[in-house]
Amino acid sequence: MTTPGAGDQVELDADIDQPAIHHVEAERPDIDRSDGGLIDWVLGDPQLAATCSAAVDPLEIAARLETHGMSSQVAVDSFGYPDVFAAANVVYASLPFEHVEAPAPASEPMGGPLDLMRGALFALPALFFPVIVRGFSVHPHWWVLPVGLTVAWAISQAVAAVAWALRGQGDERSDSLVAFGSILINAVVCLGCAVLAWWTLGGSEASVVIAVGVAAYIGAAGILLFQQAEWLLAICMLPAAVGSLSATGLLPVTISHRAAAWSVVVTTGLVIAVANRHVLSPLWRRPALQRAVRERTAKYFLYGLGCGLLTSVYIVFAEETNGSGGALIIAVSPLLLTLGLMEWQLRSFRSRATSALATSPDLTHFGHQIRSAFGRSVGTYVAALAVLSVAGVVIGHHLHASMVPLLLAAVGALGLSFFLALLLGSTGRIDLVLTCWAATFAILSATLAGTEVIWSHITPWAGLTALLVSIGAAIIIMAVLARRVLMSPLSY
Questions:
Q1: Do 350 and 397 share a domain, yes or no?
Q2: 171 and 37: one domain?
C-alpha cells in the first residue's frame, strides 16, 4: 500500500471538489452501479466487498483497493477517477455499511506426549557418549563435549532461525541446501575449534573426531526435528539405543562394548544420511535472506552460543569433582529427563495465552489469565525438576558420589534459566535473552576473578558456586522481564 503524503493530500483536495462523506448509515442510498463499473468490480470479489462494506473511513477502502491491484493509474485508465482515493470515496458512499465480526484467532495446540518424545530424543544421546569411550577404549580430553556442544548449539539455533524464516516465506525449495549446509558448517567449524583446542590444550586425534561427530549429529538431529520427522529420528536412533542397553546388561541379549560403540557410529551415520534425504532433489535453490533475517539469525547464534558456553562451564567444573563420572551422570539426569516437559509447558503456555487473548473482555482479565498460565507452566516444570533432583540426591548419597547436591542445584538452575529463555524467545524478544546472558557472563567472570584473587586458584566447588550465583541472577532478571513482556497482548 502507498501511503499518501502531505503533497498528495493537497492534490487530492484540488482534484475532488465535493463535500466530505461521513460514515452514517442513514446517508447510504441503495447501491448505485452507474459509476463506470467500479462497484461491479468491487462486488465481483466477495472478500473485497465484505471488507469495503465494513470500513469506517474511505482510507480503509483505499488500502483494500490497492492490495487488490488498483493503483491510481488503474483508477484513471479503467474507471475514470483521478486516483485511488477518489475511487475509494465513491465506494464508501455507494456500499451500505455492514458490520462484520472479526474471526477469533485460532488457539495454538496444547503440549502433549509428542513433546515428551522430542525431549527423549534430545536426552537419549547422553547414553551414547560413555559407550563410545568404553567401546573404543579412547580417553577424550575434557574439552571434547564443551567444544562439540557449544558449536552445534550455536549453529543449530542460527540454522533454525533461517529455516523458519524461509518456511514463513513459503520457500521449501531451500530445504536441501539448508540441511546439507547446517551439517557441513557444524562439522567444519567444530573441526577447526577442536584442532585449535588440541594444539593449545592437549588431547588426541580421537578427541577431535569425537567432537566433530557430536557436532554433526546434533546438527543433523536438529534438522530432522525442524522437519517434524521425529519418528524418522527415533528409528535412526534404534541401533545405538539397543546397542547401549545391551552392552550394559539391561536387555536379555548382551553384546560387547565395542559392538555397542559401532552401533552408535551406525546411528550417527543414519541420522546424517536421513537429514540429507532431499539432497538429490532437483529443487535446490539458494535462499534469499533479507537483512532482518540475517540480523535475527545472528541473534539466535549468540543465544545458542550462550547456552552452550554456560553448559560447558558446568561440564568443566563438574568433571573436576572427585568421582565425577557417577556424580555427573546423576546430576544431569533431571535436566535431560525434563527436556520434553519444557517443550510441553512452553506449548501449553502459548495455547493458554492465545485462548485468553480471544476470550478476555479487558486487559485486567487478560493479565490475570496470563499470570495464572505463567505460574502454572513454570511451577509444573520446577516441581518436576525438584522431584527428580531429590531422587538424584538420594541416589548420590547411596552411591557415595561427592558434590551431588551442588551439581544438582547448578544443573537445575540451568534448566530453569533455559526454560525462561524459551518463554521470552517465543515472543520474539530474543534481544532480552541476550541481555540476560551478557549479565550472567559478567557476574560469572567477576565472581571467578574475585575467587582467583582471594584463593589463588579456583576449585570445582568455587566454580560451581559462582555458576550457580550468576545463573540465579539470570533467573531473577528473566522472570521479571518475562512477566512484563508476557503481560502484553502484542506478544502473541
A1: yes
A2: no
Q: What is the pTM of this model?
A: 0.74
The residue out of 64, 94, 124 marking a domain boundary is 94
Q: How many domains does the chain have?
A: 3
Whether 101 is covered by a domain: the verdict is no
pLDDT in tens, 45-71: 887 888 888 888 888 888 888 878 787
Give the domain extent around 323: 305-492
Report whether 321 contacts 403 (CB < 8 A): yes
Residue that is last in its domain, among 263, 289, 315: 289
